[in-house]
Amino acid sequence: MGGVEIFGVIGFAVAAYAVVANDSIQTLGTFLSSNAKRPWWVLWIFASLIMVLVIAYGYFHGNGDVAYDRLDKLSVIPGEGDRTALLVPGIKWWHALPPVVLLVMTRYGIPVSTTFLVLTLFALSGGASGQGVLQSMLVKSALGYVVAFVVGVIIWIVISRTFERWVFDTKEELPFPYWVSFQWLSTTFLWSQWLMQDLANIFIYLPRTVTVTGGVTHVSFDPTYVIGGTILLVLIQAYIFATKGGEIQKIVSSKVNTVDVRAATIVDVFYGIILFVFKEMSNVPMSTTWVFLGLLAGRELANAYVAHLRDKGESVRDVLSDAGRAFLGLIISILLAFLMPLIGTGKLPGL
């Protein structure tokens, strides 16, 4: 096994843990909060089953593409016209570094965008093939935050005085069984949408077959890589669930009513819908972290200013803190994307 492949394996393994530890908790956080009294292994089996089904669907329905088209713009092979070739990503040591940084930042509870931390480096070090991808990711992610924030404000202005107040006032009561069913269904929808967006952040480290037909790019992965990667992800998911989500889970738990299955269900539904809309909009990768924070920010402010469920100043500080840490993560991601190739090759990557 050559050096490039070794770093590819290391990068894939570390990225698998880092992405699941950071981003999946932002998706499954409300699910964990509102089901904290259930055995962790029950929640793990449920989430892992959905993950296996999503990966299997992507592989069979997408002709081997478990990244759901998110790597098309980052998988360019030389030549013109219709062509097919095996793309070995050419992983260097600096490609394997971002997931390690993500692990450290996750430990301190910083909600980092793995899309920027991992994919930006590949986009900038890909030469002409990566030109314009970073800008597209930034625009789409910023739009995702704004849309999610506006949706959060509008929806929770409407429901905060009634629904959220009802949840807040009856939080000690046992919720009706159908609310539990609703939440597990909404989690299924949200978790599947997140996986379709962010599996690219993990599988980008692996070799893939790239086919260009009529100017349209398609990637496919060897089934051995897919099976091995899926097993690793399931095992990592077990650790995350057994440790109750870690530091990132605290961001979710600090928000109003997120431990209540009823409120968590509404958050999951709208988060999933927003991810679905942006997934269908284009195959440019985007930060699901920014969408998550935008929705929670709009919700928190509406709950504080309209329903008065939380101190206004406290909610503003909370929202600004989350946004500030996310922006810090973005700056670190872009700096790494420029500095690592510079240290390794002596040359700055081009935009």
Automatic annotation (TrEMBL):
<feature type="transmembrane region" description="Helical">
    <location>
        <begin position="142"/>
        <end position="159"/>
    </location>
</feature>
<feature type="transmembrane region" description="Helical">
    <location>
        <begin position="323"/>
        <end position="343"/>
    </location>
</feature>
<feature type="transmembrane region" description="Helical">
    <location>
        <begin position="108"/>
        <end position="130"/>
    </location>
</feature>
<protein>
    <submittedName>
        <fullName>Uncharacterized protein</fullName>
    </submittedName>
</protein>
<feature type="transmembrane region" description="Helical">
    <location>
        <begin position="261"/>
        <end position="278"/>
    </location>
</feature>
<keyword id="KW-1133">Transmembrane helix</keyword>
<feature type="transmembrane region" description="Helical">
    <location>
        <begin position="6"/>
        <end position="28"/>
    </location>
</feature>
<keyword id="KW-0472">Membrane</keyword>
<feature type="transmembrane region" description="Helical">
    <location>
        <begin position="40"/>
        <end position="60"/>
    </location>
</feature>
<keyword id="KW-0812">Transmembrane</keyword>
<feature type="transmembrane region" description="Helical">
    <location>
        <begin position="224"/>
        <end position="241"/>
    </location>
</feature>
